[in-house]
Design goal:
With 410 residues, the protein is mainly beta. Helices cover 8% and strands 40% of the residues. It is built from four helices and 32 strands. The strands form nine sheets. It has a six-stranded antiparallel sheet with strand order 6-5-12-3-14-15, with no helix packed on it.
Amino acid sequence: MRNYRLLILVGVSVASLFSGLLPAIAAPDLTYSGASTYKDAKDNIYIISGLEKKVTYANVAVNKAPYSDACGFTSIRLSDSDSPFPSDIAFNGTSNTVSSIAMVNKSPYKCVNGVVEWNNTTPQTSVFQTSVTNINTNVKVKTIYYPSARTGGAFKQGLIAYTANLVKNVKPNACGFIVIPGYANSRKQTSGTLSISDSPINIATLPVNPNPPDCIGGKTLTGSAAAVATFNGASLYRTTKAVYYAGLTPNSLNVVGYDALSSKTFSIANTCGMATTRYSKDPTSIKIGANTYTPATMPLTSGSLFSCASPGYAALTANTLYRTFLGEYMYKTSDLTLKRLVAESPSVVSRNIPVNACGFATIPALNTANGFTAGDKVTINGSTPYSVTTLPLSPNAPSCKNGVTYLVSS
């Protein structure tokens, strides 16, 4: 027992020793001019905080212009999932107190060929409402109905107006900061005040960050007009999916030649495991899984077999590629749960790749499934071929927004 206790003590000491030797990983400083709350040019608000925040946009003037149905009824659906119910609501300028509107059952009527059929409800001649609560989410939904005496008859447009408080709990993203959309812009409202965790925010006086942070794939990207999209000083480098060429003339064009594997997806939209596709030009080889096929030496199969209902289809060998007289290819898979199949073929093609406004070009792999592979080469504007897999490998890709280069913050 003493030895066991001694082992625990030693283990704790060693762990403490190593934790003291490990360098601390500092999170990027995302404040702007010392402010942890700021906005961008579109009034989107950024909060540098790892904590959930309650966002309240109060006294928002909401206006809707629905049409009445064939029976002359106009309805509006209100939910308390985003905001409390309004206290008053107006239709064509005449206001009603919501709590005073008559309540009826949840399915008051049906409109059949312009004729009202009431469902176990006394016919209503003035405004009425229904209320339903979801037992799982506890969200309550109210529907307010205006009869033809208020709407003016069938297919008439009316104006519904009310004031609402929009409330929502907002969690930080995977990068540890919160982005609150510019409600006044996105909802086309000109009224209302914003509070964050019950503290009022004056949007007009918030500092404006022209290049706010971004979060892509759980990684924080920060932008700078002076940033250059190089990697460890290299202007030509790669990720697993693309080659990046930095330091070019913005908005210019590159002619890129590929000598690389490309990928093609066979869609499987049937229940018998048959996947079909066509090539505009037969490739020199087609690789599916561990098997490689040479189209030039493949026997031609009758296209009549390429049908789940064909008696000959059942006799075809599973997990095999077939070719028809019409240039169509069919793969029969034994995995009937498969929805798509990827085939790889060598390709020699030329493409025009634009340079973005930040001065770098993104040269995507032809093989969308597996990216660049050993032996793949590219030429850029007639250069000597570059062996892609020998280029420096960056774990992160740059981004370009409004002419500003964004790089992953370390």
